[in-house]
Amino acid sequence: MSKRTAKKNNIERHTTMDTIMTNSPEVISILLQNKMHCVGCLLASFHDLADAAVEHELDENELIRQLQQVGIDIVA
After folding, report:
1. What whole-number distance in Å separates Cα of residue 40 and Cα of residue 13?
2. Is 56 exposed, middle or buried (0-12, 13-18, 19+ CB in 10 A)?
3. How crowded is the C-beta side of 75, counted as CA atoms within 13 Å?
4. pTM for the complete prediction?
């Protein structure tokens, strides 16, 4: 695995949803499966992963688990 790929797939918990989707577009399918409409949302530039989970009444740990299944590592 290249350094670029490894860095791209590491997401900090407090990264905005906009940045997460831009850097790792493979997360978009997970968001849509969870009925999260972060794509195009004005709040995506302000909400981080925890904020988005709360806004959509999702368990943050379950959302993280789903993201990990597509190769996204969430770091503290």
Report:
1. 20
2. middle
3. 7
4. 0.81
- Low-confidence residues in the chain, pLDDT < 50: 1-7
Report the phi/psi class of residue 71: left, alpha or beta, with left for phi > 0 and alpha for psi in -120 to 50. left
Give the integer Cα–Cα distance in Å for 17 and 38: 7
Alpha-carbon gap, residue 70 to 66, rounded angstroms = 7
Tokens of 55: 């806004």
Q: CA of 68: how far to CAs of 27, 41, 46, 61, in Å?
A: 10, 23, 22, 10
- Residue 73 pairs with which residues in a beta bridge? 10
